[in-house]
Design a protein that fits this description.
Number of strands: 10
Helix content: 40-55%
CATH class of the largest domain: Alpha Beta
Shape: globular
Structural class: alpha/beta
Strand order of the largest sheet: 1-2-3-5-7-10
Radius of gyration: 19 Å
Number of helices: 11
Length: 266
């Protein structure tokens, strides 16, 4: 049985963590598989949005530390090794790094508990939709570690430093509605509506010009480290080639003719 499922339908790629018997805790091979599938989706011209979700009652309960610690070296796959020299520690290919650098929009459908690494994976997506029964558990400090996969960078930008500090320092579990109030998730829906709501939003995104959506995401990501003037300049450089695309001409024609555009990504 594959621990990471992958399917593409209607311009939407769905990546499903598939180890429900251990609450989708992530093994070393799963790390590699998630990264590979994310890159595959990002390179596929037919894919316009990516959904990441979990199978079973949990989204992801973190890294499978029990299995990793039982190995001969305490290996954590491509996250490095617990007994590795710090100068050799390598995370370039870890899913949160790959996820952050994708141009394809991503939605996390949080079907259940998201803890530790699973929480960072969810926060790394562009949009999060949570089932009402979902829980976000930033319990790193309770385990003697810290958010190793982007949480210290992502959470303060989402909720502000003071709120992020309280969440991280206490490690207190957040229920879905509280996460919504804080701005950590975009929507909270009933559990049986999660798939339909996530695919509906993905379909809405996918109906737009894919080259334009990818460019918007690139520029929003760049804006995290640029001045206003730098970003405006880079946006203009993105705009020029977009205005020469078939999709731009189709978008203008559809607007003038009062019809729904048919974008081809060209």
């Amino acid at each position: 049985m594959s621990e990471v499922l992958y399917e593409v339908a209607d311009h939407i790629a769905t990546i499903t963590l598939n180890a429900p018997d251990r609450m989708n805790t992530i093994s070393g091979p799963m790390l590699d598989a998630i990264s590979a599938r994310l890159l595959e989706a990002d390179r596929d011209r037919n894919v316009r949005c990516i959904i990441i979700t979990g199978n079973g009652r949990a989204f992801c309960a973190g890294l499978d530390l029990a299995a990793q610690m039982s190995g001969p070296t305490g290996s954590l796959g491509n996250l490095g090794s617990l007994d590795t020299n710090p100068g050799e520690f390598e995370i370039r290919d870890a899913p949160p790094i790959v996820l952050h650098n994708l141009d394809t929009p991503t939605i996390c459908a949080i079907n259940g508990g998201a803890a530790g690494y699973g929480l960072d994976l969810a926060l790394g997506c562009d949009i999060r939709i949570a089932a009402r029964t979902a829980k976000l558990s930033p319990g790193f400090a309770k385990r003697g570690i810290l958010p190793e996969s982007g949480g210290t960078w992502l959470m303060p930008r989402m909720v502000g430093y003071a709120r992020a500090a309280e969440i991280a320092f206490t490690g207190r579990t957040l229920m879905a509605d509280e996460a919504l109030d804080l701005g950590l998730v975009n929507h909270v829906v009933e559990a049986d509506e999660l798939t339909a709501r996530s695919r509906g939003l993905a379909a809405e995104i996918s109906s737009n010009a894919p080259l334009a959506v990818r460019a918007i995401k690139r520029m929003m990501r760049a804006a995290e480290t640029e001045t206003f003037e730098q970003n405006v300049h880079h946006v203009f450089l993105q705009l020029l080639p977009l205005m020469r695309t078939n999709d731009f001409r189709e978008g203008v024609a559809a607007f003038m003719e009062k019809r729904t555009p048919d974008f081809q990504g060209r």
